[in-house]
Amino acid sequence: METEYFIHESSYVDDGCKIGPGTKIWHFTHIMPNSVIGENCSIGQNVNIGSKAIIGNGVRIQNNVSVYDDVILEDDVFCGPSCVFTNVINPRAFVQRKNEYLETRVKTGASIGANATIVCGVTLGEFSFIGAGSVVTKNVLPYALMYGNPARQHGWICKCGEKLPKNLKCESCGVIYKNDGNTIDVKNS
């Protein structure tokens, strides 16, 4: 029987994983037992997916990323090359803290730039955009453009990935957003 997904011959996929159709797993990747990966995902070279990780549909994980236990990537998330997720706030080599893992959730459509670090326990809002090399230590609002160390908000970003001007009308795709106090949403949605 032919599988509905692709696994490169150099990769390891442990028993008990659920992998959706159309997903591609590239070179030197390890998918731990019981992890869940949705449909039409691209898992890059040298990626590690933890046993309790959940990957939605249409997710793109670039090279050299470890998605640890209790990290949830919702649909259409982009993880840039070498971005980092943590799972314990106060790690020590000589202290076991597996019962202290904190859930990290990346909501639908969010993008994380290359070499960004996402500290455990935060939520990245829908369609938020984390700039390359940033260190995220707090929750991120939907559509927020974040960068720096620590990451701070530097405006808003459209679903299409373009920075929004002050009038909140995307100059690329024409979508108009409304400001609801300290967050934005699509106007008339």
From TrEMBL:
CDD domains: LbH_WxcM_N_like
Recorded GO MF terms: acyltransferase activity
Species of provenance: Thiospirochaeta perfilievii
The organism's place on the tree of life at top rank: Bacteria
Keywords assigned by UniProt, alphabetized: Acyltransferase, Repeat, Transferase
Pfam families xref list: Hexapep, Hexapep_2
Upper classification of the organism: Bacteria, Pseudomonadati, Spirochaetota, Spirochaetia, Spirochaetales
Recorded family membership: Belongs to the transferase hexapeptide repeat family.
InterPro entries with a match to the protein in the record: Hexapep, Hexapep_transf_CS, Trans_hexapeptide_repeat, Trimer_LpxA-like_sf
Identification of the protein by name: N-acetyltransferase
